[in-house]
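> forwarded from #structure-qc
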């Protein structure tokens, strides 16, 4: 995907915020809807499509858009912008709405529209949207297309949207699954060959210990993929047990200290971490924290230290993971989106799964802060019992 963005607009965090009046929107709608050819063509488009004014507001939309959003009255969308229709969380985060926030600088939808308006040529991009509706959160992976359109002396943009969420999710999960499983399976196979050629009992025992760890890693990868698939489909069942917070930290440190990802790096547990019994799904929480520590190790330069710890406050416990590297702004704005990854094409899911499992199943919340002085710290805040 082309991540090139437009220059920052002076009067907002990104694109112009000015909107046309309601009367002007209705006037343009009447002009467009009065043309039978426009009505026929727009409704023949199978994907969601809308015609946007120069202010990026909807002045006409097809039946597919109304069906997607569950609306029956055409006028209900008039004057809105695409992110507002799709319930984008960023569109709500600031008063000027869709296209005007700092996060919008990395949005494929607004950049496709702006590029189309600037060049007069079609623009096709991928777009990730984190949305919220009726207290529930959703993640969309969309293919968007913006094409120029002139009518009655006015310049418009025909904006179409195709949901490719299932396609992207399957592709990412499959790539990650085969990548991680093949790595661990190859390591296990190598150790078995080494055991076969071992010349003495001590050497054989060392290889067996390494092979056992590779086998455990393989099982952990399989269980993590199964848990994520079940979580996305809503079929994940919790197994709540009582467990020590510090014991959890020690297990994670022991598991990852000798992992390939921790080569030339150290994992350090804060000695002032609070030890408390919590009631939660032990394996689910462990996977969340392992994911965060792995990400921290990957982001850290050689000879650095990744620190983890726990704090209890007001009947909640906060697990935290710190690494010395500052997170780039572009990563900060997209870190929890499903298909976003800093590791290359089709390697997303990591921090998305952390947020999904934490908020939807562990009844907690996840946040982060990053700066040049203290690096990056992720925090998982959970109730002491669920």
């Amino acid at each position: 995907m082309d991540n090139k963005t437009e220059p920052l607009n002076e009067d907002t965090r990104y694109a112009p915020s000015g909107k046309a009046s309601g009367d002007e929107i209705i006037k343009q709608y009447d002009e467009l809807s009065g043309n039978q050819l426009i009505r026929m063509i727009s409704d023949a488009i199978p994907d969601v499509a809308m015609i946007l004014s120069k202010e990026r507001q909807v002045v006409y939309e097809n039946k597919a858009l109304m069906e997607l959003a569950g609306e029956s009255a055409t006028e209900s969308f008039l004057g809105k912008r695409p992110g507002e229709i799709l319930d984008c969380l960023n569109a709500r985060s600031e008063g000027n709405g869709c296209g005007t926030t700092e996060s919008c600088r990395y949005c494929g939808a607004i950049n496709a529209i702006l590029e189309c308006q600037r060049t007069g040529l079609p623009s096709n991009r991928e777009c990730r949207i984190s949305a919220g509706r009726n207290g529930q959160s959703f993640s969309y992976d969309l293919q968007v297309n913006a094409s120029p359109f002139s009518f009655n002396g006015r310049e418009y943009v025909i904006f179409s949207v195709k949901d490719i969420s299932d396609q992207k999710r399957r592709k990412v999960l499959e790539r990650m699954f085969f990548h991680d499983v093949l790595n661990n399976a190859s390591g296990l196979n190598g150790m078995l060959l080494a055991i076969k050629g071992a010349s003495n009992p001590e050497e054989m025992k060392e290889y067996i210990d390494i092979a056992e760890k590779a086998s455990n890693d393989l099982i952990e990868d399989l269980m993590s993929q199964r848990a994520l698939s079940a979580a996305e489909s809503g079929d994940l069942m919790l197994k709540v047990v009582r467990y020590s917070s510090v014991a959890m930290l020690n297990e994670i440190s022991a598991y990852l200290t000798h992992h390939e990802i921790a080569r030339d790096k150290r994992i350090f547990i804060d000695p002032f971490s609070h030890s408390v019994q919590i009631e939660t799904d032990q394996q689910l929480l462990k996977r969340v924290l392992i994911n965060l520590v792995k990400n921290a190790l990957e982001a850290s330069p050689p000879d650095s230290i990744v620190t983890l710890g726990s704090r209890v406050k007001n009947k909640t416990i906060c697990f935290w993971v710190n690494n010395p590297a500052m997170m780039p702004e572009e990563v900060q704005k997209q870190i929890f989106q499903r298909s976003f990854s800093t590791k290359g094409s089709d390697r997303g899911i990591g921090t998305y799964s952390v947020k999904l499992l934490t908020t939807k199943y562990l009844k907690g919340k996840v946040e982060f802060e990053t700066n040049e002085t203290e690096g990056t710290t992720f925090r998982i805040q959970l109730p002491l019992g669920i």
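QC bot note: Residues 183 and 218 are 9 Å apart (CA to CA). The chain has three domains: 22-163, 167-236, 238-386.
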